[in-house]
Amino acid sequence: MSTTTTQSGSGAPAGNSPGHTGKPGASRLVSWKAGIGLSLLAILGTILFAFMAGPKSAGFGIAEASNTGASTLAAWITLILALVISAGLGYLWFVRRSGTGSGYATVPRWIPACTVAAVIALCLAALGVAKVSKITLESGPVGWICAVVLLALAGYSVFLTQAKKTTPRWVGGVFATVFLVGFLVWIVAHGNDAEPAISLAGLIAGSVTLAVPLVFGSLSGVLCERVGVVNIAIEGQLLLGAFSAAVVATVTHNVYAGLVAAAVAGALVSLVLAVVSIKYLVNQIIVGVVLNVLISGLTSFLFSTLLTADPDGLNKPGHLPPVDVPFLSDIPIIGPILFHQSLVGYLMYIAVIVVYLGLFHTKWGLRVRAVGEHPQAADTVGINVNRTRFWNVLMGGAIAGIGGSFFTLVSVDAFSKDMSGGRGYIALAALIFGRWNPIGAFLAALLFGFADNLQSVITIIGSPVPSQFMAMLPYALTVFAVAGLVGRSRPPAASGIPYVKG
Amino acid sequence: MKLELKGITKRFGSLVANDHIDLVVEPGQVHCLLGENGAGKSTLMNVLYGLYDPSDGEILVNGKPVVFKGPGDAMAAGIGMVHQHFMLIAVFTVAENVALGNEATKAAGFLNLDETRRKIQAISEQYGFDVDPDAMVEDLPVGVQQRVEIIKALVRDAEVLILDEPTAVLTPQETDELLAIIRQLKADGKSIVFISHKLREVKEISDTITVIRRGKVVGSADPSASPTELASAMVGRSVSLTLEKKPAEPGDATFKVRDLVVVDQNGQHVVDGLSFDISQGEVLAIAGVQGNGQTELTEAVLGVQPHVTGSITLDGVELLGKSVKQVLSAGVGFVPEDRKVDGLVGTFSISENMVLDLYDKAPFAKGIGMKPAQIASHAEQKVEEFDVRTPSINAAVGTLSGGNQQKVVLARELSRPLRLFIASQPTRGLDVGSIEFVHKRVIAERDNGTPVMIVSTELDEVLELADRIAVLYRGKLVGIVPAGTSRDVLGLMMAGVPEHEAELTAQKTHEGGTHA
Amino acid sequence: MPDAKTPRDEDDDVATDVALDTADGAMAPSPVPASSQGGTIPHAAGGSLFRQIVTGNAMVSVLSVLLAIVLGGILMAVTNPRVAETAGYFFARPGDMLSEVFKPYVALVQGSLFNWAGADTAAQLYPITETLTVSTPLIFAGLGVALAFRAGLFNIGAQGQIIFGALFGAYVGFTWHLPFLLHLVVVIIAGLVGGALWGGLVGLLKARTGAHEVIVTIMLNYIANFLLLFLLTTPAFQRKGSTNPISPFLDQTALFPELLGPQFRLHAGFLVAVLATVFVWWLLNRSTLGFEFRAVGANQSAARTAGINVPRAVVLVMALAGALAGLAGIAQVSGTEKYLSGGVAASIGFDAITVALLGRSTPWGTFFAGLLFGAFRAGGVAMQAQTQTPIDIVLVIQSLIVLFIAAPPLVRAIFGLNPRKKKNATGGHGSGTGSGATAGGKIESGAATA
Known about the structure:
The complex is a heterotrimer. Chain B is α/β, with parallel strands linked by helices. Among the domains of chain B are: 3-235, 3-Layer(aba) Sandwich (Rossmann fold); 342-416, no CATH class.
């Protein structure tokens, strides 16, 4: 084993590898992180899921009874569509791969992802067509199968590292999925009931709902960081958004006015961030932290004085009701999860797509990313760096503000002190976890929403893990993520550095 | 297009960077702006390019006064600029970089990169550039990156092209190619403003030369003027272009490098099997174009490169695997190539910077406690000795001029007995006075009997200081040649041509008489 | 660019500072103001001595506090129905409205400095002792945050480090039974160790994997909090016979002695805070370790090139910062609370950030900022009790102060004190030749090294 196969990318150049003469050309740097990390997790998984598997089975509710006629039709149509799309994409993938023989390079990045999504939709639609309403899994056998797969994948990763090859991304994806399945079966099977069961559809739908403010928050972060401004103030933007939505919706008796007010409020927080950090060049992280304290104090103060004095006149916003998308919401499983949302929920989908397309496929996005990577270069081609930064930060604030309205217009029908509860920070983590990419941030936020929801579901059915540890999970995951277990990525090069002309 | 500058003045506070500068650039002309570092050339061009507002004076395009609020206005008026430090975004493709700020779009602001690709290809064909529009810029060699910069200007229909120190990062051969491109552009009727302090190129390419000194135009010169004339016009006094130094008296070879390999994060061998010795009382200059492994070589000696194999010995002791502190304690003096980032802590005082690598040694510290009085008196003494111009030893070092900053670094590194002295780009960005000072100090250290390793991309500097010259190309040693080797041979070697072949080729070109 | 040394616009001290701090945009800026890092920066505060005082850092600090108090006052006035009422007859009896407006601040002063309505001397002096008591953990945690700032690390994790310090200290305090003083010393050491572990973990992750400390510390705060809540439900930590998540009381021997007798809460922890401040001052300004920390904070590349072991410094400084924050936890469990509960850290860890920022990350600056915010806290309690003004206003005022102090040009602009407008051109920035700089910069050096 060559000594040059060390941990690459460790921020610490601890020293040289003394005295060894590597064969020139033979040494490639492959990180051991993936191999070691997966091995540890696989061992943990084996102990928990296989050796500590309970005697009980785990039940997963799939679909609640619904409008059956429409539902069956929708299921069939989805099944056929998903079949066609996944077959088409799979063919495309295969052709592109075998066409030139040079492997992944010629396969556009979206093909594998879309294929996997289509296949998942296909499976779910098939379950809907078959009218399966509950899956019951024996925790012992499933645990063992999962453990074997995990160990095999970890072994493969170690083997690849040994052979100086990097572990492909699908290994991580499959590993995570299998681990998740094993974990769910294990933890549900340890429930207090004789035949413990949870509603899978409810679990996922709840996760999406809980993820809404996180997604908006992380999109705000993406917009700011991509343009070179670190936005720690997401928490404050969410909180002031929630506050303003509640007050304005109550005063105007119009929830939509509340929604607009939330966006304005978020932008207002951003305005301070932008002016102080861009014009007065104050350290962006400092401004963000201080703004969070300021907004927390301000909203708490106003809540204690004005809102508690007159709750009916100031803190009784209406409710943004869930809206079903015709037909789509009838699709079993997928429908209730994706197409039974409040207006804010649909805005979330739109925001993710718009921000993604905007950043990576438009003139505006090209300029934004240029400013965040190399502001001088952007300046020399006639882009006004600080103006671009200013407007982006404002826009980010408005988006986070809308996310804040979720708390008072959708989730709870009144404002209360510090009700964002640190979700702004989780959104920040989601943005890093998602590698500064709107889609990635969206998926990371979903993961955090899932962990959050799982915790409350598990607490209800009873679990071997204390609820505090379940609550810790998203935070611990984030620490692992930033410590590089999930793979490294680089933030926009100029993020956090103020631009001084000349 | 005719471009005129009338009475351009740019003040920064009390400092006058440009003082009533008049300049006329005729169409189809290569106009050289000659001046040493800090003379105000770049400031002037930044004014012309709309990056700075002039404090006074006006710019005329084809006889009409114009006001540039930003680079966008300047580009719209047909002015393009290739900056000394390329203004390219490393993680963008060539097409994206070229499109930036001048994007072709489809409906709803969506990018139309195909359009940009077409334009790039058209220009590439016209000028014989070999540029792939979909290549990531960070993967391209510097020479190609420079062409991307030129394409950027041409795509915007630039009629006047400003090239700011364009040859600083090129091999002599690449420089020749660039000069050919400039001639071609000139033939197409474009005007070129060529900023340089390198007399040879200036003489070779220019139609008109304007000399700038301390922010003022001190006159114009004819390309046929002798280098000495140009140099003294540039510096304002007569300068001897060569350093007076005694021939080296090499002693024992105490510094030895064997089979050194440095692997970077991507698994590339950035230094690939180097072996060489340096004797006491000898200057070995490492020549080569920027980015051919010089930085990694010096960093490997210092001990900040993580993946190094081979052997580096000083006085028979292996340095590889030692911490930076141990290497410095072994008597290595190190002047890093980027003094602002690696050499100095900008916000620290001069006295603190003077002990940046000695802070825990006697007499500046005893145990864990430091001795401020000792540190201050040391700083006072060194400021005196190295003629550092500063109001106080407590001033933040970042507020000093480049030359004075470099003197602080030198003072620190030369303030302890050395067994090896390494200086990377020791005079980058300095004015002639400071360059002379630094060179004298380097030679003085050599004459003390210290082995000296100088890394420089400036061939002039290499030729001036070296007793022997090692040429690096793509991390490999092309050869080690004696001090008197001709520029042509060195230039070819810097492009990777082996020594004997380079000599033959150089001879041939001379016999053919085609070389300018 | 060759003439990168040319100064920028005449109005832009801040731009020069940022350029200095980031090596012209090559590095991320440090959390510490450039003027606090070591060298003096000749902001050409030319003109008269008076002008220099008026436009200097100290003046900006005073004005920032003033401005924040005024804004806080306005906020309280507009939300107070009594003010609106009295405003109705403002011209008849202006005193009524003004007294309504000033009431909260009067209560604040009465609750934090001197209660002139007190029955006896003890009652009159009680507020100031309360201020010192409340300040103690703020100073400890503030020093922890400031120390990490000096090494370029945004330690948002004081909250978690306080929890760990309190956790370790409290456990030793109620399970071990040792003689007086020895027990206290052991408790303090346990607190130091607890905080150092939690802080050092951040340093280790940063140094080994490059994980950004802002994210890591925020996450570790949550983890520490949940861990505390979990432990308080376990037999090892939960008070016997209680269903609440609280620990047993610490032994009497494990508590800080009261300094002024039992009627005051002020305890010896405050003296330790003074000692800690002296220690941090010495560490930063007179020790080789502190030199390393500061160098790493101001320019990591240069520090590495100069032979400083950057990873070691990062781990060490985070451990020390954690240890200091751990002392804040000890000040809680051994000083004021006397037992461990889920709210042991209150919001000290977050207040500590504003304390360190207000103190410009210098030890004595942090000490006095801690006293000021302690006074706000102590007075805020009295204010809430007497005038029903929610204590949250304190958060608003604190954060406004920090915001203003971080942006001196903003404050100067608000008060019309721009030093550049009237000054004679002195070329205080290092000029091209390096000889043009004036002695103007010397004035600020005293404040910078304080």
